[in-house]
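Weekly structure sync, notes
Attendees: PL (lead), two postdocs, one rotation student
Agenda item 3: pending single-chain targets
PL asked that the sequence for the first pending target be pasted directly into the notes so everyone works from the same version. It is reproduced below exactly as submitted, 818 residues in total.
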Amino acid sequence: MSLTALLALAALAPVATQAPAVNGVDRPPAPATAPLETRAPLRIDADAPVRILGRSDADAYVEARLRPLPAAGADGRAYVVGRYQDAGNWYGAGLAWQDAKGRMQIEIVRIQDGRLTRLKQFNRAAATDARFYTVRLEMAGNSLTAYLDGERITSVIDGGLAQAGGYGVVAQGAPFEMSVPVTGAATDKPARLALARVPQRVQLSVGDAPVSLAVSALGPYRIVAAADADAGSNASASSNTSGNGTASANASLLLPGYLTPSALQDAAMSAPANGAQTIRFTASVAQPALVTATVADGALVLAPRAAGVTTVTLASPDNPNVQSVLEVRVAAASPARQSDIKLAGAVLPAIGERDVPFDTPLRLRFDQAPVLGGSGGAIRVYRVRDGALVDTVRAGGEADLLGYAGQPLRRAVRWQPVAIEGQDAIIHLHNAKLAPGEQYRVTVDDGVLVGAIGGVAFAGVTQQQGWTFHTRAALPPGAQALVVDDDGAADFRTVQGALNYAMQHTARTAPVTVTIRDGRYQELLYLRGKDNLTLRGQSRDGVVIDAVNSDGVNPGSGTAQDARAPGITGGRAVLLVEDADMVTIDGLTLRNSALRAAPNGGQAEALFFNSEGRLIVKNASLFSEQDTVQVRGYSWFYRSLIAGNVDYIWGNNRAALFEDSELRTVGDSGNGKSGGYLLQARTVSAQDKGFMFVNSRLTHGPGPTGNDVPAGATWLARSPGYAATWDHVAFINCRMGPHIAPVGWAGPNVRQPAPNPGQATATAGWREYGSMDLEGKPLDTSARQFGRVLDAQEAKAAYTTRAEFFAGFGGGRGWRPE
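Predicted structure, written out during the meeting:
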């Protein structure tokens, strides 16, 4: 047990009891006193005292292991508690257990002035084996993050409770068992023991060869600012050697400058592979008759034996809080059956086809739209020359690594690889699995797809049916003009295939244009370390890059991972760009089709430009609901459409200019009465320009479920409430529809944080000039609050030319986009 926990046991603070709900609103605990149970694990009774162990800093974490009691039989919630001021004011992170549904929600909650608000929820299947979960609440400034078993699950920005306070635990609705909570600095990140760059769920079939899975077994680490390091706080990594001689290190990751909330979040996702030391672990199987598990050279080796569902527990022998439970599903063998189906004309690539792009998806055409089966079987691709299995795809969901094979940092994502489009089943192989100049054979298990081809029931594809194809020769290095087409003659079948080539086989600064022919490209995309790249569509509406991705599928904005990084942090965007300059998107549509109303919906970027470089978007359309466009660095949007409904333009940017563009607020699938917010600026310094809109139109229209936006229900912007970022937003000569609220800006008038700066000037804060209605008539802005209506002279100070707007790029070198 840590020193923190031992000290906490010696000095107990007053606690509180839970009061009943009033008028359907959960009420916080009412003051009371009770002794703390010091034996471990603790029984925390439902609606019993909040157990406060002591005080922690405002920037701190609180962590405990917890589980619902097996005999509870009721829904319940359990939280670790931080920044506890009194019974009516505290933060919590924990699990909301839905026993009847077999589900649980990882939640971040706030109780302020007696009202409970669930700030963030993330849905996940609940285990039935009475396991303990390790829950951590991390509080760093306005950033609150929830971890589950060391995995960063979700985060939220909230400035409601900023002061240091007590820490402890509480349960509601059902009794829980919990370990004594521990606390520490928010810059101390948890150890993580998990499969590397894949979900913690493994699918196998009886008869599969043993599979070796990389494991991220990394000890805790610390994030420190450069100023702290100069003061000596990062002089060396501290270590604690256990009695058996195994060292667990707290490594330090050095970050330059002030640690903004976003920097802390990014480092939390990417730092373990760079700063933490390897820890040892063991593997145990709940039902060894189904699968065997061994540890070899730091990897987990699983060998399926019989059909069924079991769990494999990875555990540190040195720290009981460091463990991970994997679900392993073993499907019965379901090989394809011989049938009279004629595959000729029903499959792509065609049988025996040559010069096939080596990023090709597979297609099967049925008589009518097929459906996904429930056999648990797989699509397999073998290399003909030696019979090697090169890829296995299961229809129930997969993980993928975007980027080229061997790339140091790749984007790991959860992904549905089989899509039904009309009569076709489209099978997306794992990225970068096929090689040029090879022959491949495809098999499909019985039951993967249900339908008929040529009037014959589909029973899979056997090796004897001879679905083989030859991939084309490799492109020579250095090609600067690439063509993508989903079905015609081209260099690549997928956009990611072309991006992989550009990242791997062209010089970083060499200009490369990827021409994309009309078609629908269902894929997530990743670009890193490549400058001067253009994605140019054949036509704006004809080229549609489309995927369903969201915070409930791939949590977080997204960042790349190295081979030792745990879990999946590829994020919720369709296109993620990192460490790149002069990236151009021209003449195409980028769509994230996630619904806010879906159980795993929420934030869902179409584009995340995660770079301090330059981005150009022109003659393009970008669609989503929440967080459609997130940008950093410098960006220019010209004659483009951005559609969404909640903070659908946002980011920690330097300067973003939108000219002659349309901002379309669409009906919210999750709340038909809401009009949402156009922007949430988090501009990184007071001197940067932020977000500027010139000669643009603010319109409204139906959302993905058909409902439009109510009149007066949309706000121009809201603030994150940061003291370290700036709400620089300006509208110059823009036309605004009747959906825009007369007050304009969402501040404390609608229970949102006040902007920074609180009082706008000609060049800072929330501003507008020359606002008109959609017909071009002057708009009445007399009711505006928290923003500034500029006069003509102030408007000239705010914006004159593109060159002036982007003059700060490159330390004053400037940029004039064309």
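Discussion points:
- The mean pLDDT is 87.
- The first helix runs from residue 3 to 10.
Action: rotation student to compare against the earlier draft before next sync.
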